[in-house]
Amino acid sequence: MKYSELRQGILDVCKRLHAQGWLAACDGNISVRPTLPDGSPADEILITPTSRPKAFIRAEEIAILGLDGSPREGRASSESKMHLEVYQNAPLARAVVHAHPPASIAWTIARPELTELPSRSCSELILALGSVPFVAYARPGTEEMGKNLRAYLPKARALVLRNHGTITWGETLDEAYFGTERLEHSARLLKYATEISGGGKLPELPEAEVRELVKLRAQLGDKIL
Hints:
Layout: H1 3-20, E1 29-32, E2 44-47, E3 63-66, E4 71-73, H2 80-89, E5 95-99, H3 102-110, H4 123-129, E6 134-135, H5 143-147, E7 158-161, E8 165-170, H6 173-197, H7 207-220
Parallel strand pairs: 6-7
Antiparallel strand pairs: 1-2, 1-5, 2-3, 3-4, 5-8, 7-8
């Protein structure tokens, strides 16, 4: 795919995220690792620029970084280290979406004792994403923020950064975007269930059923569904 088409794809995802209320002002960042004509991944990524409202960026503002972090074109997002960490530790990754969907983030703020989204209450969450880890907090833009992802890669394709945002990655830009969509939908569903039930621990599916769903997820593969 041509770089011009990849840039347009990034712009489209930025607009979709903003329209859903998952990006405000200069929040978030999106990147793509191009595929070369021989099918191998490029040694560079295209990534949204720093300090720009994502709904209004232009194609020519999208920056290019070497996989080692070396600047090649434009002014890359200040959180580019986090994207590079994904690409360096998840060989299949071709796109990364970092957004700020409210319900997903709210779970990490309101329930600091949890280590992941309570997926055992929802069959579709188990089947579509598997477990969704809550990654330890790190100050945005720091190397620590990227390093904190390592323990979960490449297995987890959807993660929530405590008190900050979400990271979803995929083998295509669509998969990475739909990972954010699936994650926030699940987080809202679980939020509503918690409110309706009056708070506290959510009822879970029977243990035997959870085991069967986990097996089915393994058969379906690691892709976001």
